[in-house]
Amino acid sequence: MKGKLLLMTILLLAVALTSCEKKYTYVEVILEKGIFGGIDKKEKEPKIIKAKNDTLAYLDAYQKFCRSVKINKDMREAFGETYSTPFGFKLLNDKGENIANSTFFITREEEKRKIEERVSRLPNNIKKSAD
Asked: Is residue 8 part of a domain?
């Protein structure tokens, strides 16, 4: 009986440790046209990303950024001009450190390319609505 209890405890602990998700904060950086001219660099409202590791969090953040770039492009096609443009992003870990430029993995460039291709194939629903 004690053996079964110990085994169950170990299994539950193993499942709990392998399924833990960490919290990251995604902050998009934009360039925004100022009221009196010029361009200001600003940060949009932070969003929480939950992921098992830095690599998966980075890929989620990169996809969010690519979608913002695509939406901006679609708006420019539909309306001729936008007042803010996605410039980059920060990915903050639980210590508040920006890991966007320090998260490296073997297939990073390949995965980024796949995300870019997938997002670029999305239809321009903004132009359809505007027409």
From this structure: no
